[in-house]
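User: I'm putting together a small comparison set for a docking exercise, and I want a reference complex before I start. The sequence is below, and the ligand is 2-acetamido-2-deoxy-beta-D-glucopyranose. Could you produce the 3D structure with the ligand included, as C-alpha cells?
Assistant: Of course. I'll restate your input first, then give the C-alpha cells for the complex.
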Amino acid sequence: MHIARSSLSAALMATSVRAFSPAASSSFRSSAAISNLSSRTFSSTTSLNANVLKLTEPAKDLLPDVDVFIFDCDGVIWRGDSVIEGIPETLEKLRALGKKMYFVTNNSTKSRKGYKKKFDSLGLDVPAEEIFSSSFAAAAYLEQTNFKESGKKVYVVGEVGIQEELDLIGVPHFGGPEDGGKQPDMGPGGALPHDSDVGAVIVGFDRNINYYKFNMLIVY
Ligand SMILES: *[C@@H]1O[C@H](CO)[C@@H](O)[C@H](O)[C@H]1NC(C)=O
Ligand SMILES: *[C@@H]1O[C@H](CO)[C@@H](O)[C@H](O)[C@H]1NC(C)=O
Ligand SMILES: *[C@@H]1O[C@H](CO)[C@@H](O)[C@H](O)[C@H]1NC(C)=O
C-alpha cells in the first residue's frame, strides 16, 4: 500500500488543458500560463520527494506521527471492479483514529461524483470531499483562471468525467463521448467544422479516441 504519497501532480498532468485567452496575444499568454502551472507542479513534487519517507518495512511509529494519508486509487484501493484485500479494514481503522484521508486518481473518465459511486459500490464509505480526480483538476484549473468570464467553450477529448466536472462549474462544452462515432469528411471540398467560440481543449483518457477527434485537436 502506498502511504502518504501524493499523485496529485500526476493527476494534474494526466489531463492537459490548453487554455486560450480571447485576446490577440492568446497563444503566447496561454503557453505562459501552462508553464506557470507546470513549474508549480514540479516544485510541489520536489518538496514532496524531499519530505516523504518511503516505508520499507512496517513502521510502528507511523500512526501517531502521520495525520494525513493520501491514497492513489487504481491498484491501491481497487483493481478493476474489486476492492483490494485489507483496504476496508485499513480505511476504517484510520478513520476511527481520526486521520484525514484523500483519494487521488489520474483517470479522468469519471468525475468526483462518479468515483463516489464507485467507492459506494465497493462498500467503502468515502465522502465526496476526499476525492480528487484529474477530471476535477482540469475543471479547477479553468475555474481558477476565470475561464468562464471569457464566454468561450471547451472542446473535450475524453469521457463523461470531464463533462460532469465542467457542468458543475457552469462552463459550456462539447465533444467527448458524443463525438465517438464521428468521422471527418475527407471527400473533395470536405471541411472541418470550426467553432470560433472554443477557448480551451481538455484532453484526458478517452476509450473512443478517433481520427475525427484528432482533427478537432488540430483545428483548435
Ligand atoms: C506566472 O507567474 C508569475 C509569478 O508568479 C506571474 O507574475 C505571472 O503573471 C504569471 N503568468 C501567467 C501567464 O499566469
Ligand atoms: C480508467 O478508468 C476506466 C473506467 O474505470 C478504465 O476502463 C480504464 O482502463 C482506466 N484507464 C487506465 C489507463 O487505467
Ligand atoms: C496514470 O498514471 C499511471 C502511472 O504513470 C499510468 O500507468 C496510467 O496509464 C495513468 N492513467 C491514465 C488514465 O492516464
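Residues 10-136 form a domain with the Rossmann fold fold (CATH 3.40.50). Confidence is low (pLDDT under 50) at residues 1-15, 18-46.
User: Thanks, that's exactly what I needed.
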